Amino acid sequence: MNLKYLSDVELLENFMPKETAQNVLHEYSSIYNVMNNATEKQLKSFKGITPVRAKKILCIKEMMSRMQREKQKQLKIITTPRSVMEYFSFLEDKDKEEFWVMMLNTKNGVIGSKCVSIGTLNMALAQPREIFNVAVRYMASSIIVAHNHPSGDCTPSMEDIAVTKNIIKAGKLLQIECLDHIIIGRQHSISLKQEGVIK
């Protein structure tokens, strides 16, 4: 059976009646949005989605989340901006801005990453004190920060650039270098290092 040729409705029919699948897709536009945005309460609000059916869908959502976390764990050394973009690719699905910091050791090995701010639809600016509080606790030698633009447009705003410059200044005082600032969009992501914002 070649499942890739099935429509979104046909795929969802494996978890709910056809009419329900059509209603769900009408509400969420695509199966992608269903799996990323629909909560348990929202799923159960549709006629035809029983608690058992909702649980199956939620299990798929959890498996997707665990696959992403495992992908992050497998990244050991940062060599290019592209590897950081892939690491933070899960942010492209968020409907609010999240600001993350990745901590690195002296050999650019990934010590860990942490969300330091969750904002509104278009704002999640983090202060240097929040970022470096985490970096110091992890004994990081350097950091890379990243945040998403839920609008899908990853063009850096004036605020993005200003925050980046403040982080760089604070990092110099603490001797924890900010190597890059990645902005994640739905179709494209950018590195402010590559854009020349970070020298």
Structural overview:
This protein has helices at 8-12, 18-28, 31-37, 40-44, 51-74, 81-87, 128-137, 158-174, and strands at residues 98-104, 110-118, 142-148, 177-184, 189-191. It has 199 residues and is of the alpha+beta class. The model has no long low-confidence stretch (mean pLDDT 88).
Question: How would you concisely characterize the structure shown here?
Answer:
The protein has helices at 8-12, 18-28, 31-37, 40-44, 51-74, 81-87, 128-137, 158-174, and strands at residues 98-104, 110-118, 142-148, 177-184, 189-191. With 199 residues, it is an alpha+beta fold. A 5-stranded mixed sheet has the order 2-1-3-4-5, sandwiched between helices.
Which percent range describes the beta-strand content? 15-25%
Secondary-structure element sequence? Answer: HHHHHHEEHEHEE
CATH architecture of the largest domain: 3-Layer(aba) Sandwich
Number of domains: 2
The CATH first-level class of the largest domain comes to Alpha Beta
Name the structural class. alpha+beta
Number-wise, the strands total 5
- Tell me, briefly, the overall form: elongated
Helix content range of the residues, please? 40-55%
Q: Roughly what is the average pLDDT, rounded to an integer?
A: 88
- Strands in their spatial order, largest beta sheet: 2-1-3-4-5
Tell me about the largest β-sheet. 5 strands, mixed
CATH topology of the largest domain: Cytidine Deaminase, domain 2
Number of helices: 8
